[in-house]
Structures are given as structure tokens and as C-alpha cells.
Amino acid sequence: MWEQGARVYQVLIGTGGIGSGVFFALEGEHTLGREESRGGCFLDKRDYCKLHIIAHYVQALLGPDFRSVLVGKVGEDAVGQRLLDEMAAAGLDCQFVGVVPGAQTLFSTCFIYPDGSGGNLTTSDSASAGVNAADIERVEALFQQYQGRGMTLAAPEVPLEARARLLAMGRRYGFWQAASLTSAEFRSPLAVRILVHTDLLAINLDEAAALAGLETGEMASELIFEAAVVRLREVQPAACLAVTAGKEGSWTWDGSQRRQVAAIQVPVSSTAGAGDAFLAGLMAGKAAGMGMADSQHLATLAASYSVTSPHTIHPGLKRESLRGFIQEYALELPQAVVSFLESGLGSYPLGLR
After folding, report:
1. pLDDT at 350
2. CATH number, domain at 161?
3. What is the DSSP letter of 222?
4. I want to staple 43 with a disulfide (CB 3.0 to 4.6 A). Which of 23, 176, 303, 343 is the partner?
5. Do residues 330 and 288 make contact, with C-beta atoms less than 8 angstroms apart?
6. How far apart are CA 105 and CA 22, in angstroms?
7. How many domains does the structure of the chain reveal?
8. Is there a contact between 113 and 26 (Cβ–Cβ < 8 Å)?
């Protein structure tokens, strides 16, 4: 159950993918053939992986008095070192991010057709794939230190076993826990182990259909959301659900009420990473003592701002820029969200230390 002002959180401990990628714009609309050579060009877009994106935005929104600790792995390569430098510059705690000799940092190539459709090729044998239970056990002392005062994040792009172990540990020490799963992962028996320890499941519409055992097809988005709520309550009755649906906005279930918030209409540079920004907004709102309704508005604001950047991490997203965004688009938001954005970094009128 998502409760207003229920608890104060001081740390985020999360695991998930840490990596980078490139975007390649293909020439021609026809589908790429098996033996075809096709021209195109690289786009000026920086790609990042889920743990990095979500933790970056949570840290940017909550400020230096909040601690974001990442558990993951990168390769002993130039990409991995660049990411470590960027994460440290953003204030993320990377002491539990291992550097694996001989391994490559998680990397993807996104190919895009002229009509905007496309696909993604991602390394399956990267350093992130090597995150295991032993890596999770290394942070137990930190869970003990922040018992009852922390948040856990289990994000894709590391093995399900590692994510399940992190959530089990977080439950042991009274952490509030958020998780996300890909559509394919809902078919794994390990998905249930993750869901039973989850307080908030944040997924997109296709993933919601997979959770509910449905095919999206022509089925209305709201009906998919309703079916996903029913299925989640069968597995974990106390969990909340957030589902993003692009231009249709988002739906949430807080344990007692369903809500829909419309997307904010802004010029879109790229939608990549918007769902991760949304989850970060929900988590920041929860940490600041907001209820689900207010947190959903903060999450919608963060996701809408994120799509104005071509990069999967908008480098300018912080509370000050979101205040300007509200003024630019004359947005009406709940007072709790406005008060949070107007608070100075390091000063949290909604209850944070």
C-alpha cells in the first residue's frame, strides 16, 4: 500500500544494467535483410542502461543529502571507465560497481528506420550479465546501516537471480522496494520471487500485457492495466502498480485506487528512457513523503521533460529545470509537487532529512 508521508528514506540501493550504446539511422524503409549491406549514419544520441538512468534521476531530484548506491559490473574498457566517471560526477555511489578484466561493458546498437521504427541489438555476454548473489551479499552491511530507512531498486539487464536476492535482502531489513521486469522475464519462475518482495512494480503497456498473460493487439490500454492489477494482486496483494503507455499517459494502482494521468504534450526528441524517468519520479516522490497521486504527477513531469532530450539521460533534469518547465507550459500540479520542486537542494520540507 502506498501511504502519504508514511516513511522517510535516506538511501537507494539498486542493481540493474550499467552500459551504453549508439543509435544508427538506416537509409530506406524496407526491413533489413540477412545478407544485405545498408547505408546510414550514427545519431548524436547518448544511450544508457536502466540502473544508471533511474538512479541518476532519483539523485538529481533528491539532491546531495540522499545516497544512491549502485550494485553492478562494467568491463575493463573505455566505455566502462567513462560511465564510472559520469556516475561519480552525478553523485552516485559506485563502490559496489565491479570492473571485470576481460569483459565488455553492456552495449547496445539501436537501429532506426526513417519512419521511426527500429530495433535493438544488445550484448548478452557483458559484464552486467555476471552480476550474481555474491555481489549482492557484499552490500548487506549497508542494508543493516539503513534498516527501515532505505529504498531498493531491482532493474533489468542483470540476471533475475541477483535481483531476487537483492529484494529478499531488502525485505529482511525493512526497505521499500521497486522493481521492473521485461515482457519475456514474466515467463520465468523467478519473476514470482521478485514480485512477492516488491512494493512497486513499474512497467510499460507491453510488459503489463505479459504480466496478465495477454496479447496487446487491439485491446484497450486501460483493460490491459486492469488485468495486470488483478494478476499482480494474486501474486503480491500489497504491491502497487505503475504502467506507462506513451501518449496515453500512465495508470497507477496504489492498493486501493486506480488513477490515470495524461501525458504532457511537449515536442519529443526521443522517448527512450522516458519510462525510467517516470519510475525515478515515483521513487523520488515516495522518498519525499508524497502519496501515489502526487508522485504520479511528479513522475509524469520528469518523463515529459526527459523526452525533450535526444539522450536517454537528460543532462539538465533537476528540480530547478522542472520548475522552469512548469512555467513554460503553464502546468497545474498538486501543491505537494510544487513545494518539493521549490525546496532548496539539501532542504526537504516534506520530511527528508
Report:
1. 36
2. 3.40.1190.20
3. H
4. 23
5. no
6. 13
7. 1
8. yes
